[in-house]
Amino acid sequence: MPIFWTDFHSNIHHDQMKDLDKWIAQIRETLDFWPIAYYPFGMRKDSTGLGVEDTIPMESIKVDWEVLREAVKKVNEEGFPMFMGYEWQGNGLDGDHNVFFKTNDEDPCFVLDYHKLIENYDGIEAIGIPHHTAYQLKNRGKDWDRQNDTFSPFAEIYSSHGSSECDDNWINMDRHVHMGPRTDATSVSTGLKKGNHFGLIASGDNHSCPGVYGFGYAAVVAKDNSKEEIWKALRQKHVYGVSKDRIDVDFKLDDAMMGDVTKAGKHTMHLHVEGMDTIDRIEILKNEKRIALIAGPDEEIPAGNAKVCYKFFMEAGWGPDLRVFPEFTERVWKGIIKTPGKILSVTPCFSTFGQSIDNQTDNELDFTLTTHSTTATGKWMGPSNVTTEGFQIEIEDTLDSYVDIEMEGKKVHLTVNELVQGTHVYSMDEEVQQLLKERYGFTEYYRSDPFWHNAYKFRVHKASLDSWYTQEVQMDMDLVDSDEIRCRILEKNGSCAWTSPIFIEE
């Protein structure tokens, strides 16, 4: 069955509703469907003068919701699947949830208790997805003892906050200082150990641009891309999550797929993975304990002039130090990739507005990227605010072939063999030389920093061959009542995929 990609956690605020069309266009450029999560909160001061985040005035919410309803209806009529939803926080004791509806006829509800929220939508096709679950219990972390698997059929395991999988996961949850560190009591793993049957997704928690690359995507395995079939798949927990790359995963126990319940006994696990980068390892978890570790494939390059499929990621950005050139905060890149082979696919990896795949044929790709800011923060070795933009491209060709890349007039010729050997970084040398000459009057310097630090750059990542980014695993298992099996897949670039579990019941 096909896989459809989305972001279940793109929060649009009241003051951003004027840009709703822009947000929708961004999603339609990058993903397959969209459950939009309206954010009905804002900062206010209470009677004591304390600044607190709370729901905005109801009259504003009602106006926004009707605007959203009409926009979603229009997009649905145009054939793009979109669902209405909003973020619910309650009193903070039950954890945060994004609530979505199958139809466009429902309204938000702001009761403070999770179970009262469920009661409010009794008889209505609604789901509530827990997110950033691993924060402190009773303080915006998920209370798994109050979990309702019908209303909340799956949960976010990863977002811009980090990973809620467990308290010792290698991906931290330290981005939001005010929400504090994560704890195991509210982690996804603990929720599964308690016997709950929920699936797993990832999504962004993005508040400035929807579908940000690197903040998590959700994959839905559905018959087709209609609202009816997508909703059916959500109810069945036929979902999984990725941290960054869109890793295709087919995970089954015999005929039972991820999210399903199957009977105890002897089973054969089947796993097929197709990544966007070389697979580093695959981990099989049973009852939240790793029972198998499968190394990724050997990075062997076939002899001769074999015909292969290969993928590489290309990104642009970096640029002049803002402390030296404060006006250089944005750059528009026009680029072309040409190949004598065949372009099989192009996957957007966008983080901000202003990106597009302008034209794609079998042999040529024309694109526009818009990058912002630089690595300079004004604080020595502080957190970087660099943003890059890019895409992943898949090509079928022979090993002795090549690609030609042109970025803003800079031309690069790379053989396939050079691509699979390692990463290549290029700087816009002539631009920065001219800039320094005009601004500071020199063409030479005693060290390279003025030139390199102030040059825009683009990077062509090491390519991965199809034998490196695909893997098959088969394993026989004898499973008993209450077992659950899931998989974790890691690529060499750090991207991760988490499958929903398959549950065992007598």
Per-chain topology:
Elements: E1 3-6, E2 11-13, H1 20-30, E3 34-35, E4 37-39, E5 41-45, E6 51-55, H2 58-77, E7 82-83, E8 85-88, E9 96-101, H3 114-120, E10 126-131, E11 154-159, E12 162-163, H4 188-193, E13 199-202, E14 217-221, H5 227-235, E15 239-242, E16 248-253, E17 256-257, E18 261-262, E19 265-274, E20 279-286, E21 289-295, E22 307-318, E23 330-338, E24 342-349, E25 356-360, E26 364-372, E27 389-398, E28 402-407, E29 410-415, H6 416-421, E30 424-427, H7 429-440, H8 449-452, E31 456-460, E32 464-465, H9 466-469, E33 470-479, E34 484-491, E35 496-499, E36 502-504
Parallel strand pairs: 2-4, 3-7, 11-13, 18-36
Antiparallel strand pairs: 1-14, 5-6, 8-9, 9-10, 11-12, 14-15, 15-35, 16-17, 16-19, 19-33, 20-21, 20-34, 22-27, 22-31, 22-32, 23-26, 23-28, 24-27, 25-26, 28-29, 30-31, 34-35, 34-36
Describe the protein.
With 506 residues, the protein is of the alpha+beta class. The protein folds into two domains: 3-243, Metal-dependent hydrolases (TIM Barrel); 307-466, Sandwich (Immunoglobulin-like), CATH 2.60.40. 16% of the residues lie in helices and 39% in strands. It has nine helices and 36 strands. Strands 1, 14, 15, 18, 20, 21, 34, 35 and 36 form a nine-stranded mixed sheet that branches. Strand 25 and strand 26 form a beta hairpin. The chain is globular. The two termini are 27 Å apart. The model has no long low-confidence stretch (mean pLDDT 95).
